[in-house]
Specification:
The protein has about 290 residues and is of the alpha/beta class. Strands 2-1-3-4-5 form a five-stranded parallel beta sheet, with helices on both faces. β3, α3 and β4 form a beta-alpha-beta unit. α2 packs parallel to α3, α3 packs parallel to α4 and α7 packs across α8.
Amino acid sequence: MYKALIVDDEPIIMEGLKHVIQWESFGVEIAATVSDAYEALSFLQKQPVDIVITDIRMPEMDGLQLVQEIRDRKLGTKIIILSGYDDFAYVKKAAVLGIENYLLKPIDEQELSMTIQRTVEKLANDRKMEFWQRKNDRILRENILFRWLTGNITESELKDRAGFLGINLSRAVYLVCIIHILRPKCAGESQLSHLSFAVQNISAELLENCHNSIVFNGISGDTVVIFSGDDAGFQRDDLDGRLKKVVGSLRSSLDIHTVVTVGSKEKGYLSATVSYKLAYQLQNYR
């Protein structure tokens, strides 16, 4: 359900808006109703919503100022403005700020319904775009990391991409480990894919803040972890203990068995390929 906030200093209008259309039929839930812009901003700070429906004329801070504040805070909220005044100057200012519609009071039920429907469609498209953008970013990141560890990328491209992806190549030592799922006999390809994703997420959570870990999905669905840090502060006992916790957690939460192989500790980011190669070779002895 999408969430909406109604902002109006007239109680009758607020109550009327709650009941003028069947919000649930559009997949929208009224999260709250507030009587002024300051109260709206306070609410949005604690609980962001997808849609704000606001009156334009309110005491102290008007609707346009509220819209500007929402835009300045980059909340990504869709906004619908209500007004009892058919004033072109207001419409022009509102259009510059980016709104879904400028509705005149008394509110026409059909016009409000159409506006909400279009707004919900935009929200759905925005979510799809965000999903594919995150997926594309993940694919790009995994591609660069895999090419780094297999030596299939030039040093200049690696440095350039690492800077873009926020990957630190300046640490003294690097070590790579591979977490491989021992495939259950009854598991199909689809189930194995979901298990790989779950293993990656659990591993990332349990290895957070452990030697600057970078966790990603490697070849054949294996989870690959790159550890790095200062040579003196790199403790294998601590690392082994954390990896054992990962194995135990995967067994208890997903009911699967895994084989973890750990490569050698190597100096410099260019030698991370050596560590990965050893970890990969050790998987053949599982």
